[in-house]
UniProtKB/TrEMBL annotation:
<keyword id="KW-0132">Cell division</keyword>
<dbReference type="InterPro" id="IPR007195">
    <property type="entry name" value="TolB_N"/>
</dbReference>
<feature type="signal peptide">
    <location>
        <begin position="1"/>
        <end position="27"/>
    </location>
</feature>
<comment type="similarity">
    <text>Belongs to the TolB family.</text>
</comment>
<protein>
    <recommendedName>
        <fullName>Tol-Pal system protein TolB</fullName>
    </recommendedName>
</protein>
<dbReference type="InterPro" id="IPR011042">
    <property type="entry name" value="6-blade_b-propeller_TolB-like"/>
</dbReference>
<comment type="function">
    <text>Part of the Tol-Pal system, which plays a role in outer membrane invagination during cell division and is important for maintaining outer membrane integrity.</text>
</comment>
<feature type="domain" description="TolB N-terminal">
    <location>
        <begin position="29"/>
        <end position="125"/>
    </location>
</feature>
<dbReference type="Pfam" id="PF04052">
    <property type="entry name" value="TolB_N"/>
</dbReference>
<keyword id="KW-0131">Cell cycle</keyword>
<dbReference type="InterPro" id="IPR014167">
    <property type="entry name" value="Tol-Pal_TolB"/>
</dbReference>
<dbReference type="InterPro" id="IPR011659">
    <property type="entry name" value="WD40"/>
</dbReference>
<dbReference type="Pfam" id="PF07676">
    <property type="entry name" value="PD40"/>
</dbReference>
<comment type="subunit">
    <text>The Tol-Pal system is composed of five core proteins: the inner membrane proteins TolA, TolQ and TolR, the periplasmic protein TolB and the outer membrane protein Pal. They form a network linking the inner and outer membranes and the peptidoglycan layer.</text>
</comment>
<keyword id="KW-0732">Signal</keyword>
<keyword id="KW-0574">Periplasm</keyword>
Length: 427
């Protein structure tokens, strides 16, 4: 096994944490967007009536979400329009808008806010969608994200992912933090702090838990933490290294990489730490497991063929089959929510870059133009991939659309940020 391969697997071991905090972190993520989708839908967004009453401005959050997606051209309505107002559709068509967003905010007697919204099709002169949500002041931003999600879905046919969350690890000075934030980088909360590294965070399918590897015991140990209660549980602390946790789609089991019997191999374990089962037995090193979308298979990284490549094995065991053949160094498999696309990091011409592979056709595409990429993670709607890279000699996060046209960069003012994982849709 090459020293570089060994470094990629375990030197991500530069990250970890210690007590649950629900106070926001001061350093918010800064998002820069470049590129647009293959076609942009022109949408006019009117200011919601009385939105100044709410803690956050609903329309500005909706605009930011849709702008960040790269698939919409925002037309400023220059007007306040309620969801009950009569609309001159012809006027909006002349202004180039194919859709119009209107709404209002009302303060309720119990302190909540009634946020009302409608999405209008200006071409067909009909209402496409709309709803009313009574939300506490702390959830007005989430409500705005849900409105943006509805707009995205009604106009593209694909569910929006603005109301989802991301988790990642930051290092500032000697402190490591596992942080959770909204998909736009706002609302950062610290799940864990430590002076020892934390790596490989992974969301459970219901979005209530994160598995990760902590070095607080001076060795890699796999933990599962409930993000609601803060409760933590060790699920893998065997002899040697315990690493690379990945949840099964139903949340009942984790795939992990363990060196308890010598060379690192793939195992599965129940979410409570019981029921350990060995999945691979090779003469190489097998690591970085990832369940398929249907839970029937596990993708993993192995150097059994002489160089790091991605393989697939039945979740109950059996013969492993090689999946990647282009390039001599392919690591960190991640499967799309629909199971059709594999994302991974490939080293070519001494550059570590993000690639995707269409599993049906074998067609491969490079998505990133950076050179030190790590840790890809699909958005729950499958439209985007978040990954770690380097910007100005510091760790940063990047997001790219699966067609490679829309790119985002997320940075913090101080410290490194790495190991991203995109959370699921929340019910």
């Amino acid at each position: 096994m090459s020293s570089v391969f060994n470094k990629i697997i375990f030197s991500a071991a530069l990250l970890a944490m210690g007590s649950l905090l629900h106070t926001p972190v001061q350093a918010q993520l800064r998002v820069e967007v470049s590129g647009v989708g293959s076609s942009q839908i022109p949408v006019a967004i009117a200011a919601f009536a009385d939105e100044i009453l709410a803690p956050q401005q609903i329309t500005s959050i909706i605009k930011d979400d849709l702008n960040r997606s790269g698939y919409f051209k925002i037309i400023d309505a220059d007007a306040v329009i309620t969801e009950t107002a009569s609309v001159n559709f012809d006027e909006w068509r002349k202004r180039g808008a194919e859709a119009l967003v209107v709404g209002s905010v009302q303060r309720l007697a119990d302190g909540r806010f009634d946020v009302r919204y409608r999405l209008l099709d200006t071409v067909k002169s009909v209402s496409l969608s709309g709803f009313s949500v009574a939300t506490p002041p702390t959830n007005t931003r989430l409500t705005a994200h849900k409105i943006a999600d509805d707009i995205y879905e009604k106009l593209t046919g694909v569910p929006g992912a603005f109301a989802t969350r991301i988790a990642y690890v930051t290092k500032a000075g000697n402190e490591y933090r596992l942080e959770v934030a909204d998909a736009d980088g706002d609302g950062i909360k610290v799940a864990l702090r430590s002076n020892e590294p934390i790596i490989s965070p992974a969301w459970s399918a219901d979005g209530t838990k994160v598995a990760y590897v902590s070095f607080e015991a001076k060795k890699p140990v796999v933990w599962v933490q409930n993000l609601v209660t803060g409760e933590r549980r060790i699920v893998a602390n065997f002899k040697g290294n315990n690493s690379a946790p990945a949840w099964s789609p139903d949340g009942s089991r984790l795939a992990v990489a363990l060196s308890r019997d010598g060379l690192t191999q793939i195992y599965t374990v129940n979410a409570d730490g019981s029921g350990l089962q060995k999945l691979t037995s090779s003469s190489g090193i097998d690591t970085e497991p990832q369940f398929s979308a249907d839970g029937q298979s596990v993708y993993f990284l192995s150097d059994r063929g002489g160089s790091p490549q991605i393989y697939r094995i039945n979740a109950s065991g059996g013969e492993a089959k090689r999946v990647t053949f282009n390039g001599s160094y392919n690591i960190t498999p991640r499967i799309s929510p629909d199971g059709r696309t594999l994302a991974y990091i490939s080293r070519r011409d001494n550059k570590f870059q993000l690639y995707v592979l269409d599993l049906a056709t074998g067609q491969e595409q490079r998505l990133s133009d950076t050179t030190k990429d790590e840790s890809p993670s699909f958005s729950p709607n499958g439209r985007y991939i978040m990954y770690a890279t380097e910007s100005g000699r510091r760790g940063a996060l990047a997001v790219v659309s699966v067609d490679g046209k829309v790119k985002q960069k997320l940075t913090v003012q101080a410290g490194d940020i790495r190991e991203p994982t995109w959370g699921p849709f929340m019910k």
